[in-house]
Amino acid sequence: MSQTITVKIKLLPTKEQALVLTKMCKTYISTINDLVSEMVEEKKNTKKSSKHIDVALPSAVKNQAIKDAKSVFKKAKKSNYKVVPALKKPICIWNNQNYSFDFTHISMPLMVDGKARKTAIHALLVDKDNRILDLLKHKLGTLRITKKSGKWIAQISVTIPIVQGTGVKVMGVDLGLKVPAVAVTDDEKVRFFGNGRQNKFKKRKFRSDRKALGKKKKLNAIRSSKDKEQRWMKDQDHKVSRAIVNFAKNNKISVIRLEQLANIRQTTRTSRKNEKNLHTWSFYRLSQFIKYKANLVGIKVEYVNPAYTSQTCPKCSDKNKTQDRKYKCKCGFRIHRDILGAMNIRYVPVVDGNSQSA
């Protein structure tokens, strides 16, 4: 059993290297689009090889472009040529036999003075916990280089073997807005993760800033603000998921149970003032971060149907609606509403885990 993740690495190319990468990325995309147009016109796969493509790219990169073009053509063919995708975002891809790395550089063939030459580009491969280099010890896939928000990023596909533990300790995790996540172990240890008030404030501040920029018609600044907000949200999800997995690991948890996300936007209770936050926060991404980080340390992730998990009393099984964040049952049982959800998630029936995006 294994899972494939994408490792992102910041590149620091020289001015000359950046110019070469920019040109290669544009050429790579235009090559794919030209090949797709030809295949659509002929309504069949291309038989071209790298020697038939006269563009300024290394032969290995040309072969990857042909492979990607065939993949795009397959999608067009599936729609009976009603939808023919045209790639726009400049990227360049090398297969796993055409790049290498050490502690400070990633090397791959670049077009220099009309010839393909293996070139070392400075890269931030060493982080605080050596996490990047540890991940790159596993089976590597393609190297994709692109530019995002003015910064060069290398994305390497990594396939990691999953070795799951044999224990039986279970932890339930309830996701929400006011409290991003609550975890309860099967021996009743409880922990809250994230700061819902801070998240709400930050998102409101981003929206307010964009509204002011909109009045000044600063469209580029608005786009930049949206990118910054997305990066901030993603960073919050990384921090929360890492803390949850560390908590599970420290408590020798074997299984983390999460709510199935198919209907979370319908089942999550929220006020009108929280509605914008509900529909812009990615519960699915947080769930996926928890899953892949848990798998890396041998913890299994299962999904359960969250229906009534925040209403059912764990003592007498009676169903009661909550008052604000407090839950009170007729039998006398009282607890925080989100803790109740996490408690019940531990033991409700497990579903297949094929949850929808949220």
UniProtKB/TrEMBL annotation:
It comes from the Bacteria. Keywords: DNA-binding. One of its GO terms (molecular function) is DNA binding. InterPro entries: Cas12f1-like_TNB, RNA-guided_DNA_endo/Transpos. Pfam families: Cas12f1-like_TNB. Residues 283-345 form the Cas12f1-like TNB domain. This is Transposase. It comes from Lederbergia citri.
